[in-house]
Specification:
By secondary structure, the chain is an alpha/beta fold. Helix content is 30%, strand content 16%. The chain has 2 domains: 124 residues, NAD(P)-binding Rossmann-like Domain (Rossmann fold), CATH 3.40.50.720; 181 residues, Rossmann fold.
């Protein structure tokens, strides 16, 4: 790339990063255009003259790619790349890269924040104190909501990648028993326990896997019925891994003892969404897809996005999904 023709880099949704995050730019000559957000109808026009596109959650599909004759690289500012039409990119010799292993601290910590808050009923106790219950009770403590230890309980983990393994290490430090679930109907080998056994034996279930056709609605009505220990269900991975309507039914009927979610099938969550029906329950916590978003992790993602772009144009591409 000559000095007279700097790279045209377009960031479609830089507003998905906190204001403190520093975008350091590239080693090669470039012009960076940042959009706080981009609607689906705006993608084609905004990437039409781009050499590089950076996106976190804005979908880049075949129709928009057809307008981007200069595009050489899409740098996904996340690990999941389901927003990219990878097949269409391959047809057009457009490389796609992502950021990996940045969340091995932030997501596990958020996972355990949800687990501890639910297991010890922190939110309902806080709300009841604010409502005057402590003063009304007239004693140094009261026991309106359940409080359970983590020690000697069993954690079932779906997904044995870097995040799942980090969750397991934290769990063992709490004195928990850890089970890694095998794929459904697959033989359990090595570290894995049969899928149905994990459902039946776990006090807490947590999900750390990508959303794919084979993992969509992995947990539904039938799976909730197999949960003999009425576990907590935690999802900090992707909306759609758990059938949300089935989750509502399981929580209301008492098949599970609580749920903590950081993701939903529609983000932001509209008023008609199934999870809206349980937002006021003491045994449900929903956070707005922020498990990934510690200051340390978001800066790491931003730095690695530009590292990936630099590496690509230096002739040694990293973290390629498609090329």
């Amino acid at each position: 790339m000559s000095e007279s023709a700097p790279l045209n880099v377009v960031f479609l949704d830089s507003g998905t990063f906190p204001p403190k995050t520093v975008l350091r730019g590239l080693k090669v000559p470039h012009a960076l255009t940042r959009f706080d957000r981009t609607a689906p109808t705006e993608v084609a026009q905004r990437i039409a003259s781009a050499d590089v596109v950076i996106t976190n959650k804005v979908p880049v599909r075949r129709e928009a790619l057809a307008q981007a004759s200069r595009l050489k690289l899409i740098a996904v500012a996340a690990t999941g790349y389901d927003v990219i039409d990878v097949a269409a990119c391959a047809e057009r010799n457009i490389a796609v890269c992502n950021v990996r292993n940045y969340a091995r601290h932030t997501v596990p910590e958020h996972t355990f924040a949800l687990i501890l808050a639910l297991r010890r009923s922190l939110m309902p106790y806080h709300r009841s104190v604010a409502a005057g219950r402590w003063e009304e009770h007239g004693q140094f403590c009261y026991f309106d909501y359940p409080i359970r230890d983590l020690a000697e309980s069993t954690l079932g983990i779906f997904g044995a990648g870097a995040i799942g393994q980090s969750v397991a290490r934290i769990a063992r430090a709490f004195g928990m028993n850890v089970l890694f679930a095998s794929r459904r109907d697959a033989a359990a080998k090595g570290i894995y326990t049969p899928f149905d056994d994990v459902l039946e034996r776990s006090d807490i279930l947590t999900f750390h896997m990508p959303l794919k056709p084979e993992t969509r609605n992995l947990i539904g009505v039938d799976e909730f019925a197999r949960m003999k220990r009425k576990p907590l269900v935690i999802n900090t991975a992707r909306g759609g891994l758990i059938d949300e309507q089935a989750l509502v039914g399981a929580l209301v009927s008492g098949q599970i003892s609580g749920a903590g979610f950081d993701v939903a099938t529609e983000e932001p969550m509209p008023e008609r969404h199934p999870l809206q029906a349980i937002l006021d329950r003491h045994d449900f916590i929903l956070t707005p897809h922020i498990a990934w978003a510690s200051e340390e992790a978001t800066q790491t993602v931003a730095d690695r996005v530009f590292d990936n772009i630099d590496s690509f144009f230096a002739g040694s591409p990293t973290n390629l999904i498609s090329c």
